[in-house]
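Example record

One chain of 195 residues, shown exactly as stored in the release files.
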Amino acid sequence: MAYDPLTTAIAEGTGAGTSPQELDFLRPTGFRFTVSNMPNASFFCQAANIPQMSIGSPMQMTPLTDIPYPGDKLQFGELVIRFLVQEDMANYKELYNWLIGLGSPQDHKQFKQFLDKQTYKYPKDAPKQKELGQFSDADLYVLDSNNNPKQKIHFVDCFPISLQGLDFDISSGDQPYFVGVAAFRYRLFNIETIK
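Predicted structure tokens for this chain:
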């Protein structure tokens, strides 16, 4: 029997020499995004990403070609979302207030006041209950062709790091709606299959 690299690759990748069972492809429009600290922005979310992840590769120096080795510390890219801004700016203000609370630009008490407003979301006996208001877990649901959730990307301990400004311009002939753009950092993300 002759060596067939394609058959061998399929057999090694799937554990069997059979064709893939799933023939549908991932759609860029098939998603739903939620963050508990900002329900309005989540509802009007128009775009979200699965961030890149990378790992270093230290080199062992030799007199000949240097030898790379896999690193031991992952780095995660930023989570970026785009959302339609409501006329009363309620969803924009959710992110604005979160950033103001974390940054305390006018007074040190702003941080404590922000955390106190978040305490209703967590049980009184939760560990580090006061710190929990700084963070919020986020979920990106990947939908199948019937718009049913198939995968959940769970972002642990998210917090916003930027919120782009809105440029008002009367010279524009058309009337496009404002789209807010926000970026988040987080500790890590997990990909879970939904049965």
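Notes: The two ends are 40 Å apart (CA to CA).
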